[in-house]
């Protein structure tokens, strides 16, 4: 059988902390294995080589300037497959907090009288601007999920995101429920797939993976009621990662 | 490209490096030489601004660590710790000695992680004349495997201590939300002992590489402490002399907005200054452990060092220091154990109480040495512990002015003897030597300049 050439992968970053790309460098031997299956042609953080010839674009970060829009459209045109990588790219992530205050105020607060020189628009996930083929969620991305998505790409199958709450994984990990400990937690409304990473480590869920499609609002409200607090108490935590989704759907479901 | 580029003594040179690679974040270098005179020399930060300081306003202070660690993927632990220290200062919370030593351990391992990333992934390719570590996979596979192993060791440290290294989970205000596992600590200790050999090997590699000659003395600022080579705490010090308390940093540093950059730059007494490994080394050399001093000697480094290119070699000296100190800390932990009651806290106050608690409005300041230098967070809170103003000063912002000053000195020195391509590479290498973290530099900007 003729050996097929390796698919070319390019990494790109927009508005973010570049922690997603760093997760790749932290994969150790798995990274070396990855380079046997894929040709990495663009990875600005660790490579000076640049190429406009690629099959798969793995893009991290939010869209937050006019130039970002132009750039992502160009990348979309060149790539056969576009992967949104990490919370900023998939759900706007913490960048979305910016959208809650008027942009003018944010500019003023940060740049004072030079505010006019700074270009900024509302922070958006990639799929508000271009079509996205695969989603790798989480802040930072969860390595087993990175590998699962790359496997799906290799065999040409879609990668279905789990559509149940983090609580399911959290229960399997036998964590004590945060609500039992008199703490708030976004687990009941957050999409699973991280193996309840933060709760396993004694913290709470902050909803960095975005929200489940059907939050079972009535059931969740019952839980909130049982522990003596209102849906509004949890809605305010939506704004940490989920500004776009929160406004679109959850306010309506929960209010 | 303009001018006589085929001629080494070209009178007109234009360097325009768009999207400098192998740095963290997006930056351009622009240099214009007209008729042999330098007319323009800029390090432009073009990263999209993220407005973190604005984002912090109105948020509960218990969210600050989670949020500000997202400023930077490389130094997420340093941001977390500066943030936690600022919040504790504002809230009047004092963590236990045990917690402080676990924080120091985490910071040491992040220092190792970031330094090794810089040395192998960002700088060594230039010195070996290749474009990236990817090319070395084919030609120098054992070297790449070693680099990844060293990276993996410090990354694993983050995993054991804080749940993960990028955006740590369990390090919060007052303590840790969970004890590091004994099994994990034992494995980490073993990996650290093994890393000594890789460290020795790396010293040999760095020793054999040739760094460009260039000298320009400047103001070197870092933390300093009587007790140790300071990373987590201490006073600010400049060139081994003038001292300033952390909470008075705004009296010392002046920030300004430039029209060609989304990063602000800082000065001291209207002059550029530098932070990071080279400054710590120059100010605190005496506090390095024996092994680190031996490595410094081996690499021909002694304080004061005025060649910014050697920052990379000094990072390796710090890597050795951090490894030996971490091994000592780990031995103490494994011998004495960790007392859970002195370490574990809840990530937030109880949900049923948080809305009724009253706090004293105050301003808190936290500073740690991030891998790239002194990092400041300052928050003001109201009586509900919500943030009313935030200020973060990032190492790279403090270094950009100094980098430009170096470029202004180096370009005329190279004119006539170097081609435009050589000058471009030298400037790229110079910028990389500073290990700029441009994401940080723009992701955090300043809220205190509100013209109220």
From TrEMBL, chain A:
InterPro entries xrefs: Hydrogenase_assoc-protein, NADH_UbQ_OxRdtase-like_20kDa, NiFe_Hase_small_N_sf
Keywords, alphabetical: Oxidoreductase
NADH:ubiquinone oxidoreductase-like 20kDa subunit domain sequence ranges: 17-151
Transmembrane segments: none
Family annotation (SUPFAM superfamilies): HydA/Nqo6-like
Domain of life of the organism encoding this protein: Archaea
GO terms assigned for molecular function: iron-sulfur cluster binding; oxidoreductase activity
UniProt xrefs under PANTHER family: COENZYME F420-REDUCING HYDROGENASE, GAMMA SUBUNIT (PTHR42845), HYDROGENASE SMALL SUBUNIT (PTHR42845:SF1)
Name of the protein this chain belongs to: Coenzyme F420-reducing hydrogenase, gamma subunit
Annotated source species: Candidatus Methanoperedens nitratireducens
Taxonomic classification: Archaea, Methanobacteriati, Methanobacteriota, Stenosarchaea group, Methanomicrobia
TrEMBL record, chain B:
PROSITE patterns to which the protein is assigned, alphabetical: NI_HGENASE_L_2 (PS00508)
GO MF entries: ferredoxin hydrogenase activity; nickel cation binding
Alphabetic keyword roster: Iron, Magnesium, Metal-binding, Nickel, Oxidoreductase
Residues holding Mg(2+): 53, 443
InterPro entries named among the record's database cross-references: Ni-dep_hyd_lsu (IPR001501), Ni-dep_hyd_lsu_Ni_BS (IPR018194), NiFe-Hase_large (IPR029014)
Cofactor: Ni(2+); Fe cation
Annotated positions binding Ni(2+): 72, 75, 437
Binding site for Fe cation: 75, 440
Pfam families documented for this protein: NiFeSe_Hases (PF00374)
Recorded family membership: Belongs to the [NiFe]/[NiFeSe] hydrogenase large subunit family.
Cited PANTHER family: COENZYME F420 HYDROGENASE, SUBUNIT ALPHA (PTHR43600), F420-NON-REDUCING HYDROGENASE VHU SUBUNIT A (PTHR43600:SF2)
Protein's recorded name: Coenzyme F420-reducing hydrogenase, alpha subunit
Natural source organism: Candidatus Methanoperedens nitratireducens
